[in-house]
Write a structure and sequence with these properties.
single chain, alpha/beta, Rossmann fold, eight-stranded mixed beta sheet, four-stranded antiparallel beta sheet, 13 helices, 12 strands
Length: 329
């Protein structure tokens, strides 16, 4: 038997109540409304590997990230962490310290009133790992790991650049010696040159410390550099999941192909480019059948009424009737 995945998501869903106040609903004679941010997502992450989730803004990537560390409760499905249900894992302090999250905006995720030593030491103290000088020693070691000086512990966040602030965020996440890191677009707020430095740092830390990553991004060039597998999300669902190079070499789902065609063709090969038409449907009232069918050039009557399930096509998991029927060649 193959080794059990380190992190598992099993048909997870998260709905948000977006109903108007009850008086307005009574006047308008309307019921409650739910926004389906995540609507049945399943994936595995083996230990020491990186799964990246990509897709347009509003597709549910960041909601999945928060579900995977317990910041949101699931509406349905379950998250398993090293064989333990996530709720039970978070209730156990020894298990909870094994997972951490790196947030998108380094300007908003650091307390401007705290010195760096207090920011980085917060997980150490919260989990009861160390106190006093031992905690400060851990802070110095964490800062050194991310390419900063232990002397930076005395400074405030406003004294650092954006890239340096994100390094502080990574140091804070590493200070409790986690094994699983959820990275919610950790480079999107940074300059391109700084993005490369942060990505190289994260890959080096993964190799040295054996970390497991869930990486959230809308930048295909970024995820290609860091990923073992890539999942493509559309309107709260996973439509394709494949090894990174396989996805870039032979994308199967029409939406994945559309994302690839949106990447600038720097080699000037002259390949045809067909932008996706239409608008992203509302997650409050999603289309019937395949959510992508109003914008899909391969859609037929079956796509409009039957929601596709994931099938295995070579190394790729894909949810598409056209692929299943051989119409997507």
């Amino acid at each position: 038997m193959s080794e059990r995945p380190f992190v598992e998501a099993r048909d997870i869903a998260r709905y948000f109540d977006v109903s108007r106040p009850i008086v307005q609903r009574l006047i308008a004679r309307e019921g409650r409304r739910s926004l389906r941010a995540v609507d049945g997502v399943t994936f595995d992450i083996p230990r020491g590997t990186t799964l990246s989730l990509v897709g347009e803004s509003g597709c549910g990537k960041s909601t999945v990230a928060r579900l995977m560390v317990g910041l949101y409760r699931t509406t349905g499905g379950e998250v398993m962490f090293d064989g333990m249900e996530l709720g039970a894992a978070r209730a156990d302090m020894a298990q909870r310290r094994r997972m951490q999250m790196i947030f998108q905006d380094p300007y908003a995720s650091l307390n401007p009133r705290w010195r760096v030593r207090d920011i980085v030491a917060e997980p150490v103290r919260a989990f009861g790992i160390a106190r006093g000088q031992d905690a400060l020693d851990r802070v110095g070691a964490a800062l050194t790991q991310v390419g900063l000086s232990p002397l930076d512990a005395q400074k405030f966040p406003h004294e650092f650049s954006g890239g340096q602030r994100q390094r502080i965020s990574i140091a804070r996440a590493l200070s409790s010696s986690p094994e699983f890191l959820v990275c919610d677009e950790p480079t999107s707020a940074l300059d391109v040159s700084v993005q490369a430095q942060i990505l190289n740092l994260m890959k080096e830390l993964q190799q040295r410390l054996g970390l497991t990553y869930l990486f959230i991004s809308h930048n295909l060039a970024v995820v290609r550099q860091v990923s073992d597998r890539i999942g493509v999300m559309y309107l709260g669902r996973l439509v394709e999941n494949a090894p990174a190079e396989t996805l870039f070499r032979t994308p199967r789902h029409p939406y994945t192909r559309a994302l690839m065609e949106a990447v600038p063709d720097l080699s000037m090969s002259g390949r045809p480019r067909t932008p996706v038409g239409g608008e992203v449907p509302s997650p409050i009232n999603p289309p019937t059948g395949c959510a992508f069918h109003p914008r899909c050039p391969l859609a037929n009557d079956r796509c409009k009424v039957e929601r596709p399930e994931m099938i295995l096509a070579h190394e790729t998991l894909v949810a598409c009737h056209a692929v299943q029927e051989g119409r997507a060649a």
